[in-house]
Amino acid sequence: MKILRSIWHWIDDRTGLSETFGPLARHLVPPGAKWAYVFGSGTLFCFILQVVTGVGLSLLYQPSSEGAYESLKFITDQATFGRVLRGIHFFGASGMILLVGIHMIRVYIMAAYKYPREMSWISGVFLLFLTVIMGFTGQLLRWDSNGVWSAVVAAENLGRVPLVGTTLARLLIGGDTIGAQSLSRFFSFHVFLFPALMFMFVGFHLFLVFRNGISEPPKAGRPVDPKTYRKWYDDMLKREGVPFWPDAAWRDTTFGALVILAIVGLAVTIGPPPLTQPPDPSIVNTSPAPDWYMLPIFALFALMPPRIESFVIFVGPVVAVLALLALPFLSGKGERSPIRRPWAVFGVVCVVLFVGSLLVVGEIAPWSPRFKTKPLAQFVHYANPKLQRGTVLFYKKGCQYCHQIKGYGGLKGPNLSAIGRTWTANQLAVQIVNGGGEMPAYGGMLTKTELADLVFFLQMQK
Amino acid sequence: MNENKADAKDDSRRDFMMKVSLGLGGLAAVAVSVPVVGALIAPLLEGKPEVWRNVGTPDDFPAGTTKLVKFENADPKAWAGTTARTAAWVRHEGDNKFTVFSVNCTHLGCPVRWEADAELFMCPCHGGVYYKDGSVAAGPPPKPLPQYAVRVEQGQVQIGTAPIPITNFGDDSTV
Known about the structure:
Number of strands of chain B: 11
Radius of gyration of chain B: 28 Å
Strand order of the largest sheet of chain B: 2-3-4-9
Mean pLDDT of chain B: 91
Oligomer: heterodimer
Shape of chain B: elongated
Strand order of the largest sheet of chain A: 1-2
Order of helices and strands of chain A: HHEHHHHHHHHEHHHHHHEEHHH
Number of helices of chain B: 1
Number of helices of chain A: 19
């Protein structure tokens, strides 16, 4: 024991460990910094978890366009604890995105971005986008057919940047087409470039916490005045501050540990997302869909009017980034309490509802044709041969991919289960032949008899 | 007097040393950046050959049908594996007249599939639909399906390899 202690003293004396980190651990924080303050550190714990499990995965992963898919099958089905490792990395990413969102909302609701913490907000905005980029490139490294098509979709998005769009798209996928150079690039981005940037910004973000102090819980009627704030904050800390470790930090470690345990639990019970088809761009019978955290954007692309799409794809992110960066300069002082900032709270509620609805509707994807729907003729039988032919045509001609009858079919077009009640035969024929309102014109694709059969079949749906 | 002179000499010396440090450091940084940036932009600098790939004889494509063909990209690397492959939809109009459509939807590049009975191309991602001639029938696609160069030579239907078509800013607006 004595020897151990003297060894520690020697190391501590020569390295200055406690001299450097002791004051950081014991620095005074406002006493009210309680459970609302755990989400930032929770995000950090997830980040560390991602780094550690990422290193673990890189021991098993084959970062080449040819071998990645096979190595993923190996990781999932054969490697010791490989499935759990993949699961933790997936749920860790999900947790990090969720927590970074909650952390941001907390900071905004409590207006912690005001003087003197503007740079904390700005570095946080960069970290937010880096986190989303990591989520996207990570999903891509799964390098199944979903990964390949995610790369193509990302390239198409970059293609909408004015003037240099095509160049950026080619740079992203490493050439004119998906190929040998595609995966190497995404691997480099996901494993080296963006993590390096994140380490930099996380370090800066944390340094700022020590420099400017944890923001005290806001109180209505106590606005931030840049002239007096720092002195007031220092006096307040001297009067009632508590040491960060362990008074405040125990909540961070408790919450962080619970988050990590929950992630491991989900990884063990649910497991990683299954692989889809191999990364072969010539397999066209595939339905690419992103992981849940990209679904809101996926949904937005389907729902916005096509005519403004180029503008939204390019201008949208630019405006969003600029607005977020401008926030601390537009409202850098004054009231912090959410009670005095009802519009800020209202805005957060709107954004959460908007993104949440997009997530739900993205999960359903009503705009996608339902290629897997079973032919209606399997469930509905008519003695009348004309009606029976109409039932068969309803599936064969693709109507059922977008329209539902009796619970079978797609959701893109109106449900036609009772169309015969309100539409006449003539109206039906005109709509089928000419299309319109998001429906193709079937005039050239149907014989006269086929059209008559279909119309008759639809008329009978009452 | 003497001291002042020494100070002035020191200052100019410091100034010089600072400039040397910054200059040499900058030079070293540039020297290293060139090959790294080169690796990043290499795909843009490579030549883009158009290669004709055989996809079958004209008899493989009955007149009036649309068929999926698969072929290898222009310049496949050894470690590309299955990612070196591309698919295209070949339509035989009749009289050895062929049209070859890209499988990439012009909306966001997802693979469109041909529904033979409905005679429509449909995209699984956001519900883009095209007619058999590649024109937009419904959904968000801003322009018709792009086409590949095609020819019949030495009894073979041949497709000219091409980059993945990228929809650009403004391609979709009438403004």
